[in-house]
Write a structure and sequence with these properties.
mainly alpha, 171 residues, 72% helix
């Protein structure tokens, strides 16, 4: 049922963007790009391909905002890019937000069934945990002493080798 409604809504949005692109010739590229993406999203809804539908719907909105004439082009493109990233992040996190907020941000069953991954609240989000680090001073001193001992042995060996190379041979 939801796929059918989304299919018709997206097809209608595509038709509106096509007509708007035909009427506003100076901004037709953005509107027609949005119409093409909305049509692809409608096909994604028809064939029950959730992420295809979501990505092309967001791209259709990106084209729509890009075609509007409310600010300069670079600002519209930056706004559209941020809007796209935010929308994709929200849709990906929506089922997790529903669980983590205790139902305050409800997620429709349609989205919940199609977004399979979830965030899991770690210990920091569920009240945390207390870690206490201690240092065994005696063990630390022994480790440092052993390292110095090994370093001294290596240096002594090198000194002996150098001294042996400098001695004249008796033969």
């Amino acid at each position: 049922m939801a796929n059918t409604v989304l299919q018709y809504v997206l097809a209608g949005f595509s038709a509106i963007l096509l007509a708007w692109g035909y009427a506003a010739r100076s901004r037709r590229i953005g509107f027609w790009l949005g119409a093409l993406c909305a049509g692809a999203a409608a096909l994604g809804a028809h064939y029950d391909s959730f992420w295809t539908m979501v990505v092309f719907t967001i791209l259709a909105l990106w084209g729509f905002v890009g075609g509007l004439d409310f600010a300069d082009t670079s600002w519209r493109l930056r706004f559209s890019t941020v809007m796209t990233a935010g929308a994709l992040a929200f849709i990906a996190l929506w089922p997790s937000l529903d669980v983590m907020s205790g139902g305050k941000i409800p997620c429709p069953r349609f989205v919940e069934e199609r977004v399979s991954f979830r965030l899991v609240a770690g210990l920091d989000l569920r009240g945390g945990m207390r870690l206490v680090y201690t240092v065994d001073v005696g063990e630390a001193i022994r480790d440092k002493r052993d390292r110095y001992y090994e370093d001294m042995q290596v240096e002594l060996r090198e000194d002996v080798r150098r001294a042996l190379r400098r001695q004249p041979s008796d033969g």
